[in-house]
Design a protein that fits this description.
Length: about 150
Amino acid sequence: KKFDTPYIRDFLLDHGAAGDVSETAGPWSKLRGIHAAVYEAADRAYEKIGHAGWTMSHMSHSYHSGACLYFTFAFVFGDDPLGEYDIVKRAIQQAFIDAGGTISHHHGVGLEHAPWLEEDISTEGVAIMSGLFGAADPGGNFNPRKIVV
């Protein structure tokens, strides 16, 4: 089934392919553009790594103001699986931002999406989050430098 890709990651890796998911959210007025931008960015990334790739998508959550678009991608990898994964994942994440989406709807930010946090919520937004985490969690127990420093 097309949405099982995240659950068969090990199987794919054993057979020379990598797969993952990325999700974003945006207002209704931007969703069509975000959708198109992600497919274009992923296709360019597959060309860049020189291997076949597939991108699938669905709308997983909808609201009065917009929706979450969920993308599943997979590609055949070569000699540098992690480097090739990074190229594809970064292309998709940057397409979210460039087209007016957010870096994550419900999967969170974490280390993997942190490079886009400032583009997503602004320098001031990061400063507010840093202050909040610093005041609420001065020992860094709940945010051990995973989202903001």
